[in-house]
Design a protein that fits this description.
Elements (H helix, E strand, L loop, with lengths): L8 H9 L22 E4 L19 H11 L3 E5 L1 E5 L2 E2 L9 E5 L4 E7 L10 E4 L6 E6 L4 E4 L1 E4 L2 E2 L12 E4 L5 E8 L2 E2 L6 E4 L5 E7 L2 E4 L3 E4 L5 E7 L2 E5 L3 E3 L7 E7 L2 E4 L3 E4 L5 E7 L2 E4 L3 E4 L8 E2 L3 E4 L6 E3 L12 E3 L8 E2 L1
Parallel strand pairs: 1-2, 2-6, 3-4, 3-7, 5-8, 6-9, 7-10, 8-12, 9-13, 10-13, 11-14, 12-15, 13-16, 15-18, 16-19, 17-20, 18-21, 19-22, 20-23, 21-24, 22-25, 23-26, 24-27, 25-28, 25-29, 27-30, 29-31, 30-32
Length: 356
C-alpha cells in the first residue's frame, strides 16, 4: 500500500522560491556554489579564527589551517593579510609534526599571496613571517610541485638542530618537488648551521627565485644553496650574506646542472667564493653584477670542479668589480668556464685578476 506524505503549502512554496536549502552555503565561499570546491582560502592573523571556514568574510588565523582547507577543497590560492605572523600566532609552534617549520606546505599547484589589506580587496605591502629564532625553518616545502610564494618577508628561521635536514634552510627549505616560484619576497636574517641560511633546495628542479636575499648566514651558501637541482633560475638581489665555508651569496652544490644566475650579488662574505661558489655540476650560466664581495679565495666567483669536465659559462651582461682576492678563481685545474671575454671588468678587478 502506497503512503503519501502531505507537506504544508508554505514549505512547498519556500522550496520553489529558493528560501529553504537542504545544506547551508556560505555566501562568501568564492567556490562553485555547491559547498565542495573553494578556489581561495583567506588568512588574517589579527582577526581570523581557525574555527572559521576560511572565507573572505570569515578567515582563518594560521597559514597551516589554510593549507589544510586548501587540500580538502581543491583550492589554488591562499590569500594572507599584511601583519606579523609568529610561532603560535599565525605560524605553527615548533613541532616535529610540521618539520619544525612555521608553515609546512604539502599542497601543490598553489599560489600563496601575501600583503593583502584587511578586507582582501588590494595588496598593499607584505606579510611578515618571523620564526623568532625558534623555528628551524620558517617555510618547508615537502614533495609538492608548482607552489608560488609571493609578497612576504621571511625572517628569523634558525636551522640549528645539528642534524640534516633541520640544519639546512632557515628561511625556506625545499625538499624535492619542482616548479616553485619565490618572488616579490624578502628573505633576510635567517641562519643555518649547515647549508642555505636563506634558502636550501634539495633535488628540486625547475624553480625560479626572483627575490631579495639578504643578511643570512650558513656554513655553505649563506644566502642560497642549490643541492642536486637542475634547471633552476636565480634572478635576485643577493647581499650581505655570510658563509663560514663556501658561497657567501650563492652555493651551487654537487649534482646540480643548468643553474642560471643573474641579478645583483654584492657585499657577501665566505672563505671561498664570496659572491658565488660553483661546486661541480655542468651547464651553469652566470650573467650578473658581482661586486664588493669578500673571500679568502675568489671574492667574486670561485669554481671547484674536481675531476669532471665542466661546461660553465659567463654570458653578457656580466660585471665583476671590487671583489677581494680575485674576481674569478678556481680551486683546481679542471675548471674552465667559457665566456670570460664577455665580462665587463669594473674597478678593482681586471682581466689579469683571474687565478687560473
Amino acid at each position: 500500500m502506497k503512503r503519501f506524505i502531505c507537506l504544508p503549502l508554505s514549505f512547498l512554496l519556500a522550496v520553489v522560491l529558493g528560501v529553504v536549502s537542504c545544506s547551508p552555503i556560505d555566501d562568501d565561499w568564492n567556490g562553485n556554489g555547491n559547498g565542495e570546491d573553494m578556489p581561495a582560502v583567506f588568512v588574517c592573523v589579527n582577526n581570523g579564527n581557525d574555527g572559521n571556514p576560511g572565507t573572505k568574510n570569515s578567515p582563518v588565523k594560521t597559514i597551516q589551517t589554510a593549507l589544510y582547507i586548501a587540500s580538502q577543497k581543491n583550492s589554488t590560492n591562499i590569500s594572507v593579510t599584511s601583519g606579523i605572523y609568529t610561532p603560535g600566532s599565525g605560524l605553527n609552534s615548533k613541532s616535529s609534526s610540521y618539520q619544525n617549520s612555521g608553515a609546512y606546505i604539502n599542497v601543490g599547484n598553489l599560489d600563496i599571496l601575501g600583503g593583502w589589506n584587511s578586507d582582501f580587496t588590494t595588496r598593499t605591502g607584505k606579510s611578515e613571517l618571523d620564526g623568532n629564532s625558534v623555528l628551524n625553518h620558517v617555510i618547508w616545502l615537502h614533495v609538492v610541485n608548482n607552489v608560488t610564494i609571493d609578497g612576504f618577508v621571511i625572517r628569523g628561521g634558525n636551522a640549528d638542530a645539528g642534524i640534516i635536514p633541520h640544519n639546512q634552510g632557515g628561511g625556506i627549505h625545499i625538499n624535492l618537488g619542482s616548479g616553485h616560484q619565490i618572488k616579490n619576497t624578502v628573505i633576510s636574517n635567517n641562519s643555518a648551521d649547515g647549508d642555505g641560511g636563506g634558502i636550501f633546495a634539495y633535488q628540486s628542479p625547475g624553480n625560479t627565485i626572483t627575490a631579495t636575499i639578504s643578511d643570512n648566514t650558513g656554513d655553505w651558501g649563506g644566502g642560497i644553496t642549490i643541492a642536486a637541482g637542475t634547471n633552476n633560475t636565480i634572478n635576485a638581489t643577493v647581499s650581505g650574506n655570510t658563509a663560514d665555508m663556501n658561497g657567501g651569496g650563492i652555493c651551487v652544490g654537487q649534482g646540480s646542472h643548468n643553474v642560471t644566475i643573474s641579478g645583483t650579488i654584492s657585499g657577501n662574505t665566505a672563505e671561498n667564493g664570496g659572491g658565488v661558489f660553483i661546486d661541480r655540476g655542468t651547464g651553469h650560466t652566470i650573467s650578473a653584477t658581482i661586486s664588493n664581495n669578500t673571500a679568502g679565495w675568489g671574492g667574486g666567483v670561485c669554481f671547484m670542479d674536481g675531476d669532471i669536465n665542466s661546461t660553465h659559462s659567463f654570458a653578457s651582461p656580466v660585471t665583476i668589480e671590487n671583489n677581494e682576492n680575485y674576481g674569478v678563481a678556481r680551486l683546481d685545474d679542471k675548471s674552465d668556464p667559457q665566456g670570460l671575454d664577455t665580462i665587463d671588468w669594473g674597478s678593482g678587478n681586471t682581466p689579469e685578476n683571474i687565478n687560473w
